[in-house]
Amino acid sequence: MRIVVCVKHVPDIQSDRTLGADGRTVRDGGDGTLNELDENALEAALTLVEAHGGEVVALTVGPDDAVDAVRKGLQMGAEQAVHVVDEQIAGSDVLGTATVLAAAVRHIAAQGPVDLVVTGMAGLDGLTSVLPTALAELLDLPALLLAREVDIDGTTVTIRRDLDHASEVLRAELPALLSVTDQANEARYPNFKGIMAARKKPVTTLTLADLGVDPATVGSVGARTQVLEAAARPPREDRVLITDDGTAGVRLAAYLVEHKLV
Amino acid sequence: MTAETTAGPVLVLLDHTAEGVLRTPVRELLTLARTLAGESGVEGAWAGELPAAAIDDLGRLGVRRVHRLVTDADPHLTAVLAEAVEQARSAVGAPLVLLVSSFENKEVAARLAVTTGAGVVTDADALVVEGGQVVAGKTVFAGTWTTRCAVTAPVAVVTVKPNTVTAADAETASSPEVVEHTVAASGRARRVALVERTERAGSGRPDLGSAHVVVVGGRGTNGDFSAVEELADVLGGAVGATRVATDEGWIGHDAQIGQTGVTIAPRLYVGAGVSGAVHHRGGMQASGTIVAVNSDADAPIFEIADLGIVGDLFTVLPQAVAELRRLQG
């Protein structure tokens, strides 16, 4: 079984994350990291390969720094990594990113069939969560999203997922695209052996030209949405902090009444 | 209203319960859609049986036409629903499709965008038409930044968060025309099989994702949610929880507020024994008013609380409940 895991390099959730005047994420700080939710995707893929045989390919799209995200994947146990980097990708909206990822998956599939594409449930920066659906559509694969349990039996993949009002069991034949939630597993930490082994694993760097992607379909040129403004939310004003002196409950009730919240 | 500030016909996906009752966030969405559609009117897309009571309800909300989607495969499959919605959209020629932000609706939105070349914005918390362009407001980075995003493609698909506007009936009720669309799902859409679907039983409290008031219990409850539930009930609110509380098994995972759980933006958020870890804040930071009760004065949630109370939730909450009951008479 050959599994491609799409991972994303995002600003560290614990750091001060910033948008530039153009509305793009500022990615030049040293605080980037592998999207935490993508660790669950890598873990799911590695577990499947351990049970069914095969290999995991870690794939990322992004600037030079983004290679750190696939390196982490190699340390966890992926066999090889692909990093698509091209200045013309900058400013892509989610559909542009999906276009590049789809081309990269096809490129990987040209070297050997891909049975499964796995993503995390969302990027912790933009939280679009639209990417997995768009990628499946572009690759013409059935999409089984937000899995909290994954089971593969022969060529059939079954997932269990929880939605706002219902729980579902979905099933499809491979090849398919899967996204997993943070409930699906506990991601492993790379051990020393894994970190050493990762240094020898191949990282292939590709450009849009290598993938045959028309630059007009991606980047800010190809984007169907455009960020007009971005601003840090102003801090909340008139904040009150009190210590309970035995009357805090009454004061809480009075506050809610005064602010017309009851 | 001119062409510059209205979009033309707006198609709204009408989420409803298994019994055919319109869900609350759709009422808000229809209210918003009326301001965006202007003279062109609001069109609704409804999958499944359409009871007469629902048609009356949609009329009070000013819907001009209801497109009933009759599919030959289960419309709970998002690929099937997306194809059906697109059939209604192209029949209407709607340049704007609105959906309530939910996991499955975001899948529908993404599919529509890919198959129609539309621009897609998810989790919008404001929406206007400016210079003929759909412009959506959206908070990013755990609610710490706000952005405004214009759709530059001819068709816009936008999912809107609950509590973005207050639901209101139209000034004049309409009698919606019902148009039936028979939709044959493609082979592609049928590749996923829905083996099992279990609707979750309602708690009797408002839905967490769309409630106007949410009271959340965290580690500080030590598993005792009685004070949290009592305050929620006196405020007519929903009960939520932190990741720690759900992982401990104190309450179901569907109650988890946070970036990987339910994202909420109620008018009032009350956190009891909630420390305010960054993942939790990402799911609630856009709330209108934030109240926090925690015995630890250094809890990060106090950095974002409008009213912070350093104290024991098991004395503060019951006292507040008693006082609110007294005031309510």
Automatic annotation (TrEMBL), chain A:
Limits of the Electron transfer flavoprotein alpha/beta-subunit N-terminal domain: 22-215
Swiss-Prot/TrEMBL keywords: Electron transport, Transport
GO MF entries: electron transfer activity
Pfam family, one: ETF
Reported cofactor(s): FAD
Cellular component aspect of the GO annotation: cytosol
Domain of life: Bacteria
Family: Belongs to the ETF beta-subunit/FixA family.
Function as written in the Swiss-Prot or TrEMBL entry: The electron transfer flavoprotein serves as a specific electron acceptor for other dehydrogenases. It transfers the electrons to the main respiratory chain via ETF-ubiquinone oxidoreductase (ETF dehydrogenase).
The protein's assembly and partners: Heterodimer of an alpha and a beta subunit.
Designated name of the protein: Electron transfer flavoprotein subunit beta
TrEMBL record, chain B:
Binding-site residues for FAD, renumbered to this chain: 219, 242-243, 256-260, 273-280, 294
Cofactor: FAD
Cofactor: how and how many bound: Binds 1 FAD per dimer.
Top-level taxon of the source organism: Bacteria
InterPro entries, sorted: DHS-like_NAD/FAD-binding_dom, ETF_a/b_N, ETF_a/FixB, ETF_asu_C, Rossmann-like_a/b/a_fold
Record-level GO BP terms: fatty acid beta-oxidation using acyl-CoA dehydrogenase
Protein name per the record: Electron transfer flavoprotein subunit alpha
Species name: Cellulomonas soli
Upper classification of the organism: Bacteria, Bacillati, Actinomycetota, Actinomycetes, Micrococcales
